[in-house]
Design brief:
Number of strands: 10
Helix content: 40-55%
CATH architecture of the largest domain: Up-down Bundle
Shape: globular
Distance between the termini: 48 Å
Structural class: alpha/beta
Number of helices: 20
Order of helices and strands: HEEEHEHHEHEHEEEEHHHHHHHHHHHHHH
Radius of gyration: 21 Å
Length: 424
């Protein structure tokens, strides 16, 4: 039994936070040569004889030997040339192939390969196995599936896979660029944890210390490996994959993405939406998220340096917001009305809790510490590094809080009267 699976089992069940934490994950295999045992793992976990293998040409090539391991299965294939952005089109394609049939799903790859499978398998109640080919993101164990539909990226409630497999040899030999992206996605958890705890403080949103610690420990462990992230070393690759799984398990336990994403992810979601409208294929998710994380850590540090504030009620120029979102304006209206996430937050509550907010910000590593760790891991560090127009990036940062019905510290910027650009 893997260390991660043992940890999952130890945390499952009724919790002091009020939830009963559970996950669909039955088996996790992380070892050298795991690609040759995929068939055995699926059989012992009750997968049906008929199997749909979903991959793109690159991920299938990376998983050399996986088809041979499935000799006892009747395999059907859905192989994309390449799949960088998961849309509802791919979800529907996979769903059509498994609808009303006794068939399991094997997703070979990461991110954009996994997400359509996660949602389609949830809709059709099919067993799902994810075979990760690169430690490039933390969503392997998540219940959420970020999918682009009509230009709007939304995180759909999907399913966590029953089985997760990682071959350390394959993970270690994956492109350095993907490994660095995975590190960028992980360092973002520091902002997410700050946002989650502040939201709990101001809105009463459910917050679980146990799950927050699971995420925090996983990120801290990975930061210690920063200088080894891009090295072709199986032991390190296995540890990185385990750290990524732990944050995904946290999302599974909470049935949402709170333990692993905050304002930094929302900024990148709207940035990706804007790029897709213009026909631009976005960067690897973790690269953009990492830069957004540094931007927000600098802003949050600025806020933490201010001893007292004079807050005010939110006063949004909604016409301006809708103009920025363009064709997505109706979706933004649906997110923010009739119930607005800040309706119950008064200026007095922010002022009274300001010392606690500053303390929460200072509980995570500083902007300088995270930047140095990202440098060691080969991550992108600046807006120029990720090839973004600075005005667009700043606009996405400023307008992103209205994209989700989720309180973040960034959403409070208008009430506090201090904005991210002020941190520069």
């Amino acid at each position: 039994m893997s260390n991660v699976l043992e940890l999952i089992n130890s945390l499952k069940g009724p919790c002091s936070c009020g939830m009963c934490h559970d996950t669909a994950i039955k088996d996790i295999v992380i070892e050298s040569g795991a690609v040759n045992t995929v068939g055995e793992v699926l059989k012992r976990n009750g997968f049906p004889k008929k199997l749909l293998l979903v991959a793109d040409k690159d991920t299938l090539k990376a998983a050399d030997g996986i088809v041979e391991s499935l000799k006892d299965f009747d395999i059907e294939y859905k192989i994309y040339d390449t799949l960088r952005v998961a849309t509802m089109k791919e979800v529907n394609e996979v769903e059509d192939l498994i609808k009303d049939r006794e068939i399991g799903v094997l997703s070979v790859g990461t991110g954009s390969i996994n997400d359509p499978c996660r949602l389609a398998a949830a809709r059709q109640d099919k067993l799902l196995c994810i075979f990760g080919t690169a430690p490039s993101m933390d969503g392997f164990a998540s219940y959420g599936a970020p999918i682009v539909d009509k230009g709007f990226k939304f995180s759909y409630s999907a399913k966590s896979p029953e089985v997760i497999i990682g071959d350390t040899k394959i993970l270690a030999s994956s492109p350095s660029d993907l490994k660095s992206a995975g590190f960028g996605d992980m360092i973002a958890k520091y902002v997410g944890l700050v946002d989650w705890k502040i939201s709990s403080l101001l809105t009463g949103e459910l917050y679980c210390e146990k799950v927050a610690k699971l995420t925090r420990d996983a990120v801290d462990e990975l930061v210690e490996l920063a200088d080894k992230v891009t090295v072709n070393d199986e032991k390190t690759a296995g540890k990185i994959f385990e750290a990524l799984l732990k944050t995904g398990v946290g999302m599974s336990f909470m049935q949402n993405s709170r333990p692993a994403s905050g304002a930094e992810h929302i900024v990148c979601h709207i940035l990706e939406c804007k790029e897709l409208v213009d026909g631009i294929i976005p960067n690897y998710h973790g690269h953009d998220v990492g830069v957004s994380t540094l931007n927000l850590l600098k802003y949050y540090a600025k806020l933490a340096s201010i001893e007292k504030i004079s807050a005010k009620y939110e006063n949004v120029d909604w016409d301006d917001v809708y103009a920025f979102y363009g064709d997505l304006a109706d979706d933004i209206k649906a997110v923010n009305f009739p119930e607005n996430i800040v309706d119950g937050i008064t200026p007095e509550s922010i002022e009274e809790n300001w010392d606690n907010i500053r303390k929460i910000i200072r509980e995570v590593p500083s902007y300088e510490e995270c930047k140095e760790a990202m440098r060691k891991a080969g991550c992108r560090l600046t807006v120029d590094d990720i090839g973004k127009d600075r005005k667009l990036f700043n606009d996405c940062t400023r307008y992103s809080p209205f994209m989700r019905k989720r309180l973040t510290l960034l959403r409070l910027s208008g009430m506090i009267g201090i904005y991210p650009e002020d941190a520069d």
